[in-house]
Sequence to fold (226 residues):
Amino acid sequence: ETGVTQTPRHLVMGMTNKKSLKCEQHLGHNAMYWYKQSAKKPLELMFVYNFKEQTENNSVPSRFSPECPNSSHLFLHLHTLQPEDSALYLCASSSAGPDTGELFFGEGSRLTVL
Amino acid sequence: KNQVEQSPQSLIILEGKNCTLQCNYTVSPFSNLRWYKQDTGRGPVSLTIMTFSENTKSNGRYTATLDADTKQSSLHITASQLSDSASYICVVSANTGNQFYFGTGTSLTVIP
Fold:
């Protein structure tokens, strides 16, 4: 257990569906992240939240919409996705500050878009 | 440009043998370097962290080295076990806050 919990672990959706991924951390961290992991590619940073404020949006298409209601919870709302969006979506948290040290990852949500 | 490159891309070894994975980076200003292990379908888990002043750090059968001058790191696995089969990812943190740079990983397969 890393202290970061993601649900659901697996999700299959059509291109017209709307779904959400949820992440919760119990580590007292103030920074939370969404990463996309596709086969044979480095992890791609999507969004960063520091103290509930979005500090980075890494040119992510608007069909991905993040929400951070508090420092412990992070959502990724999905709508009208494309098949190429199929990937493992990883949530992570870390302590905020200039030297943030370690990223703690959740187990990931495996998304398949049909 | 801040980059992290890992080699080899994949590796197959016999159970009980040793192996070494490589990581080269160009990240600046450097804060620390971590090796993560990622089992198939799971999230990455940290194995070791190396800061600028550290040359070697061990975690059981895993030993990481860092040469900050040449910007190279290695992860040595001793007496490999079947459970070592995973992807090993090198992650370099920049000293500018919340900046992490990922390698593409080395896929290790240990066979009996």
